[in-house]
């Protein structure tokens, strides 16, 4: 194997990863824009946004994960040059998105049982309800765009998805200003105004994606249009659900593990939770980098598998993991050296700074293992292997990460815990250990899967 071949594989991954990264950052920036603008309207509306957004994200993340089953399915069909099969899978995915939307919309339209858990004031609850009911109108469009994004990423065409996400972000700012603060004869709606802006943009993004699929010559080979009414087919739906449900569950496990850590850390006081929140927010931004490498690597591995080239699939997988490791080690060192400047960019409060600084040791350390586990998990998805990674996520993140964090950070059993890993640091220490176990478990299982694939 020549250096040139290694370099070519790495360049292919990078060329796919950077548009995915920018698109993901634009999506995250939407919530940042919402928070910054609503915080200037009222504290109640900001609280309603926080509660409503947490419920919406919990609903959306699981359903988004189910539809991500399209990525390995379409990727393998691309490698096999079975373009008609891609069109069939997309039509069935649309049916699946409609069924998921029906379930999700019912939750968003009647959120009272979930809102009751927050035990918030009547005014905040009313605004959160209005926010969620408005987003019920956005959910079908949002899930529809997930299909468009998964199709393009699996076909190694992520740039248009990125362009739509960035354009949506630029449009979000003036629409938010209009609906939150009022103008052009419209009343000021506060937090629920964000949901109106999100809904309009979601349908506009879906319409843009539909027009591109309908009229761009590249997609004509898929036969997406002109076949008349197509009924839902259980066999195709079953395959998507077989892959998608474990992926959706793994997404849910990741989100809830960090959500519950925040809830438990809140018991340690306002200053501690503030320091934790700064660390968690920065860690989320950093996660987008290995996630984009993982996404790009998974796409190319799936295409190689579809082309029946198991050796190339393995080489691309190794190249992706190697790239993720190099980036993670570099980022980890930069974080550690620049930790003081990073934290002070978030807050001038010296007490919060003192809480956050030690926690940056953990995110600097676990970058390596987080990058390995997420890249390996996406490679396993390319092989359509999803059940074992989901079980591993549950055992590592819920049992070791969250359970260990409670035992060490809150120390309900009176253990002799060293000071440097007590309190919030205990949760970050346990989470770091869980990611080490995840990385080792994923690599071990990937070797078994690749060995079996070569022998078949």
Oligomer: single chain
Rounded to the nearest angstrom, the distance between the terminal CA atoms is 23 Å
The radius of gyration is 22 Å
Q: Averaging pLDDT over every residue, what do you get? A: 86
H-E string:
HHHHHHHHHHHHHH
The amount of helix comes to over 70%
Q: Decide which structural class fits the backbone.
A: mainly alpha
Number of E-type strands: 0
Low-confidence stretches: none
Overall tally of structural domains: 2
Question: What percent of residues are in strands?
Answer: under 5%
Q: What is the tally of helical segments?
A: 14
What summary fits the major beta sheet? none
Q: Characterize the overall form.
A: globular
Features:
mainly alpha; 14 helices
What does this structure look like?
With 456 residues, the chain is an all-alpha fold. It has two domains: 232 residues, no CATH class; 212 residues, no CATH class. Helices cover 84% and strands 0% of the residues. It is built from 14 helices and no strands. The protein is globular and about 60 Å long. The two termini are 23 Å apart. The model has no long low-confidence stretch (mean pLDDT 86).
Helices and strands in order:
Layout: H1 3-38, H2 43-67, H3 70-79, H4 83-109, H5 112-118, H6 122-154, H7 159-181, H8 191-215, H9 234-265, H10 270-306, H11 310-346, H12 350-382, H13 387-410, H14 424-455
Helix pairs in contact: 1-7, 1-10, 1-11, 2-4, 2-6, 2-9, 3-4, 3-6, 3-10, 4-6, 6-8, 7-8, 9-13, 10-11, 10-12, 11-12, 12-14, 13-14
Short description:
With 456 residues, the protein is mainly α. The chain contains 14 helices and no strands.
């Amino acid at each position: 194997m020549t250096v040139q071949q290694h370099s070519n594989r790495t360049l292919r991954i990078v060329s796919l990863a950077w548009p995915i990264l920018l698109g993901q950052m634009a999506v995250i920036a939407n919530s940042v824009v919402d928070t910054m603008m609503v915080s200037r309207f009222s504290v109640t509306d900001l609280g309603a946004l926080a509660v409503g957004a947490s419920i919406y994200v919990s609903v959306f993340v699981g359903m988004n994960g189910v539809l991500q089953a399209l990525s390995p399915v379409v990727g393998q069909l691309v490698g096999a040059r079975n373009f008609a099969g891609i069109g069939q899978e997309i039509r069935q995915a649309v049916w699946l998105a409609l069924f998921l939307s029906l379930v999700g919309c019912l939750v968003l339209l009647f959120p009272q049982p979930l809102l009751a858990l927050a035990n918030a004031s009547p005014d905040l609850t009313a605004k959160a309800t209005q926010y969620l009911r408005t987003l019920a109108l956005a959910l079908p469009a949002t899930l529809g765009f997930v299909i468009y994004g998964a199709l393009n990423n699996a076909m190694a065409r992520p740039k248009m998805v990125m362009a739509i996400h960035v354009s949506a972000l630029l449009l979000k700012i003036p629409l938010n200003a209009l609906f939150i603060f009022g103008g052009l004869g419209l009343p000021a709606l506060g937090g629920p105004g964000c949901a109106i802006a999100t809904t309009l943009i979601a349908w506009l993004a879906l319409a843009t994606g539909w027009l591109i699929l309908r009229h761009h010559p590249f997609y004509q080979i898929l036969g997406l249009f002109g076949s008349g009414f197509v009924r839902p087919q259980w066999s195709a739906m079953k395959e998507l659900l077989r892959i998608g449900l474990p992926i959706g569950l793994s997404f849910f496990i990741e989100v809830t593990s960090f959500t519950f850590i925040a809830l438990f850390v809140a018991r340690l006081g306002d200053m501690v939770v503030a320091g934790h929140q700064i660390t968690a927010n920065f860690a989320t931004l950093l996660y987008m980098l290995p996630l984009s490498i993982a996404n790009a690597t998974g796409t190319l591995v799936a295409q190689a598998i579809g082309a029946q080239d198991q050796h190339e699939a393995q080489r691309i997988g190794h190249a992706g993991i190697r790239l993720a490791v190099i980036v993670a080690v570099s980022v980890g060192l930069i974080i550690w050296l620049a930790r003081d400047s990073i934290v002070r960019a978030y807050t001038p409060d010296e007490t919060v700074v003192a809480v956050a600084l030690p926690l940056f040791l953990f995110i600097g350390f676990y970058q390596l293992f987080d990058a390995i586990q997420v890249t390996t998990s996406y490679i396993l998805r390319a092989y359509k292997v999803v059940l074992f990674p989901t079980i591993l996520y549950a055992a590592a993140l819920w049992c070791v990460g969250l359970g260990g964090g409670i035992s060490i950070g809150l120390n309900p059993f009176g253990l002799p815990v060293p000071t440097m890993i007590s309190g919030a640091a205990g949760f970050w220490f346990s989470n770091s250990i869980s990611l080490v176990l995840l990385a080792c478990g994923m690599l071990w299982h990937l070797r078994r899967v690749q060995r079996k694939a070569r022998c078949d």
